[in-house]
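Q:
Got a chain?
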Amino acid sequence: MLDINLVRKDPDSVRKNLAKRQDKEVLERFDALLKADREWRDLRQEADLLRSKRNAVSKEVEELLRLKKDAKKKIAEAKLIPEKIKDLEKRAGEIDAQRIELLMRVPNTLHDSVPFGKDADENAVIRESGKFLKPSFEMKHHGQFAVELGCADFERAVKISGTGFYFLKGKLAILDLALQRYAVDILTERGYTLVTPPHMIKRKPYSGVTDLGDFESVMYKVEGEDNYLIATSEHPLVSMYMDEILSEDDLPLKMCGLSACFRKEIGKHGLDERGLFRVHQFHKVEQIIFCKPEDSWKHFDELLGNTEFLWKSLGVPYHIVNVCTGDMGIVAAKKYDLECWSPREGKFIELGSCSNCTSYQAVRSNIKYRMKNGEKEYIHTLNNTMIPTARALRILLENFQTPEGTLKIPKPLWPYMNGLKEIAPERRKK
């Protein structure tokens, strides 16, 4: 969330920035926050004045008694003050709860380089890589192709788990692991620490990394427990430092998260129900950086460079999109999407996002660092999807599908496939 001190310092600038999102509810929420914050501060000030008055009246009573004068009127006045303070504190507590809730729902301020726009149609393509060709043969749907290779089973997954689930088998399962290992090796060689997080976290830390008011609808909650299945390793990796103060010498802190991810989102009916695009469970390698505020934009470019290196090395065409103001989520100050080319559909498929969240998550999660002069400041957090393997498999099943019905393996993955360079159809086993 936004630092309330910054909001108080220049509310007009914050409101002007939030207006770029073109969301009336956001501005209404911000105005309600300002009103609640003023009321809360006024109530606290009034209570403090009453405490001072109580102390002063008590001294007057002591002095009157010492002089053996009539103190009944002052004693009666003193007895009324604690009840008034109690009422003020109660009202202040109620307003404070509203204030915090509103503050948690106000989105991050946007970086000046975020293009102004209403929705995804106005996102700006800033860079392209590869040739966006259409297939020279009738390409099979990636799910159908995976089944014909003998490497996936969607029907039995639907039977036992419902739509949005899948079995990977044999060489395609190995390819999934190969993508994970390749991504992890790239990052660890570049100084990122591999972390495998818990797959469940509690509500309080979860509310520190995202707005559950918006995000809770796509999350799985464990019935009867204060736990949610993680939607991305970003969430436990950021929240692991909740309520901590890091040393300046610890920064930048770079992590490579490897985990299963669980989401309620699902693709359109039909073929996508037997596919690997929008699914309820998948593996993902994530990049996380904690850094000093002055370094975050440098690291933003670094994170994106890591992901671009991976996709270029695999030989997959892609482009980078600067997400516009009206299409931004609540947490990021700026976001780039990496979208890979789908030759079968002749369009781009989102594979991941690179986000600079500035201090937004750090304020929500109370994560600071101590500078060498002893002062404390909120860190900046950044995240970027290195690779979501289910979606990546879809992209490979299209871009490396051959007219002969085989799947070519990109060269960088050969060592992780025990030297296998191609997957040919296998006889299906019952």
Q: What stands out?
A: The first helix runs from residue 4 to 9. The radius of gyration is 28 Å.
